[in-house]
Amino acid sequence: MTDTESSIRIKRDVENSSISTKTEADNPSKSVMVETVKPVNTSKKGQVRKPPDLPTLERRNWLIHLHFTRKEYETCKAIIKEQLDETQGMCEYALYVQALIFRHEGRIQESLELFQTCSILNTSAENLKQVARSLFLLGRHKNAIDVYEEAARMNCKDWELCHNLGVCYMQVQNYKQASDYFRQALQIRPHDETFTALGELHILEGDIKAAISTLRKAVEYSPENPDLAAKLGILYLQHGMYQKAFEKLGTAMTFDSSCVPAILAAGSIIQNHSDFDVALTKYRIAVAKIPESPALWNNIGMCFFGKKKYVASISCLKRATYLAPFSWQILQNLGLVHLTMQQYASAFHFLSAAMNLNSHS
Q: Rounded to 5 degrees, what angle do the CA atoms 200, 203, 204 make?
C-alpha cells in the first residue's frame, strides 16, 4: 500500500465516524447505556460506616487463643502481658489462658491464684472448676470438694463436675460419696473415665465382682477401647476366670497390637502354660514400649529360667531388681535361679532379702 492510498483510507474513516456521530445526535430516541455505581453504605449524614471496634478488654482474645492452641506459649504470654497492661489486669480471658499455661508448666500455685482472680471477675461454673482442679493438684482435696460443690450448684448437669467430685471423695477415702457421684456422672453422660474410676473404687473396696460388672458395662458402651478390654481381662485373670480373661486380652490386642497391659497379662497366661517362646515374642513387643518395667523384665527372666538359660535369666532378673530394688517377688525369683545353679551363698542372700521385705512369703 502506497502513501497516497493510506491517506485516502484515513480520510474515509474520519468521514464515516463524523457521519455516525451526527446520526446519533439527530436521533434522541437512541439512549446511551451508562453504568451506574451504587454509593457505599452511608449513614443519614452521608458518612461512611466503619466496622465496630472490639472492646479493649477483648481486643486480643482471638490472637491469644490462636497462639495458645498452637502451643506457642512464649508468644502467647507476651501478648497476654500487653493485654493485661492495657486493661489493668481486668481481662478475664487473658488471665484464664495464662493460668492454663502456668499449670502446664507445673506452676500450680500461681495458676490457682490466677483462676481465683478469674472467679472474682466472673463467678462461673467453669472458673470454679479450674480453681478446684488446681486445689486437687496441690493435694488439697477437701478444699477442692467445697469448690466443686459450689460449681455443681450452678450447673448440676455437668458430668465432669460429678466425676471430679467422685475422684476427690475417693482420695479422702469416702467411698460411699465417691460411688454416688460416679453413678450420677454416668447417668448424665456415660464416659470411659468414669467407668474406669468406678471400677477402681470397687477394687479398693475389695468388691471384684462389682468391678467386673462395671467394666463389663464400660466395654459394652465402648467396645473398641483396648484399655477397657485389657482392664476387664486382668480382672478376670485375678478372679481365676482364665478363658474369659484371654478372650478380653485378645480383643484388646486386636484393636491395639501394642497395648502393654494386655501383652503383659496375655504373656503371663502363655508363660504359665510353659509356652515360653510365644511369651517371649509378646514381651519383645512390650519392651519397645516400656523398657524400664520391672514386672516385664521379671517375666522375661523367668521365661529364660523355664528354658534353662540361667545366665540370661539372672541378667534379666538383676535388671528388674535394679528397677525395683524393694520387690520381694523379684528377689525370690533370683534366689530360686541361684539355688538351681547350686550357688547357695547368692541364693541365701536373695532369699533372706525377700523374707525381710515380706515376712509372710
A: 90
Does the reported pTM lie above 0.70? yes
- DSSP secondary structure code for residue 56 in this structure: G
Instruction: Give Cα separations from 39 to 32, 35, 49, 52 (angstroms).
Output: 21, 13, 12, 20
Spell out the residues 6+ positions from residue 321 whose beta carbon is closer than 8 angstroms to its own: 294, 327, 330, 331, 334
Grid coordinates belonging to 321? 531388681
Pick the closest to residue 232 from 215, 220, 244, 213 (CA basis). 215
Amino acid 240: pLDDT: 85
Cα 314 from Cα 54, distance rounded (Å): 70
Task: Name the amino acid, one letter, at 352.
Answer: S
- Sign of the alpha-carbon torsion through 198, 204, 205, 210: positive
pLDDT, tens digit (0-9, with 9 covering 90-100), for 5-58 = 444 454 444 444 444 444 444 444 444 343 443 444 444 455 666 555 555 667
Q: What is the pLDDT of residues 58-68, one digit of tens each?
A: 778 889 999 99
Tell me which residue of 303, 225, 219 sits closest to 259, measured CA to CA: 225
Mean pLDDT calculated for residue range 180-205: 93
Specify the pLDDT at position 8: 43
Residue 359's pLDDT band (boundaries 50, 70, 90)? confident
**Alpha-carbon gap, residue 361 to 348, rounded angstroms:** 15
d(CA 52, CA 178) in angstroms, rounded, equals: 50
Q: Taking the chain, what is the end-to-end CA distance rounded to the nearest angstrom?
A: 121
222, exposed or middle or buried, with CB in 10 Å at 0-12, 13-18, 19+? middle
- Say if CB 326 and CB 353 are below 8 A apart: no
Q: Which three cell numbers stand for residue 253?
A: 490386642
Strand partners, 42: 48
Count other Cβ atoms within 10 Å, centred on residue 5.
9
Domains of the chain: 57-122 (1.25.40), 292-360 (1.25.40.10)
